[in-house]
């Protein structure tokens, strides 16, 4: 799943309105933000296997540190705890921790059975939504549109406006997702690892999109 994760970050504004969007985006994408680094270090691995699913050609051979259920919970606890240490908002910390764990839940929906339950478990799970192109598009864009509407309603309730830069971010994510769905496979595994680090730019873009909300923090 790609834009579905961002949808959760947008929608999480409903339960924690004053949490900055970059923190929400960093939360829902945390394991995918560190995954490219782990690929470069050789700690986790992926291969390009066209046809392995209808939607993505990626065969996630090993990613127990970032994408097991157990470590997702640990990542969530660490991220939420770190944010609490700096901002002293318990509700916000819990929401952000839940955002991190939500990544595994959505991946469980979309991935074929390749998600480990723990780094030491041979059991791998996944419901395989990626085996249906139509269902994947419907679910991802359905979540994405719902997330956008929820985010917009929250910002308006704060007496603010949704910035143009936010709508540009949303449009870019949608176009990028369509490109991923319809475009050719990545040229190499190493390119996945290198290009994946650009995901941090979305966190920066989210910060830029909410610069006019800073006075309500």
Write a structural description.
- Helices cover 62% and strands 6% of the residues.
- It contains ten helices and four strands; from the N terminus they run αααββαααββαααα.
- It is mostly helical and 217 residues long.
- It has one domain (3-209).
- The protein has a two-stranded antiparallel sheet.
- Helix 3 (30-41) packs across helix 9, helix 5 runs antiparallel to helix 6 (90-110) and helix 8 packs antiparallel against helix 10.
- The protein has helices spanning 3-11, 21-28, 30-41, 64-67, 69-87, 90-110, 133-157, 164-182, 189-196, 200-209; strands at residues 45-48, 58-62, 115-116, 124-125.
Give a short overview.
The protein has helices at 3-11, 21-28, 30-41, 64-67, 69-87, 90-110, 133-157, 164-182, 189-196, 200-209, and strands at 45-48, 58-62, 115-116, 124-125. With 217 residues, the chain is mainly alpha-helical. The strands form two sheets. It has a two-stranded antiparallel ribbon. Strands 3-4 form a two-stranded antiparallel ribbon.
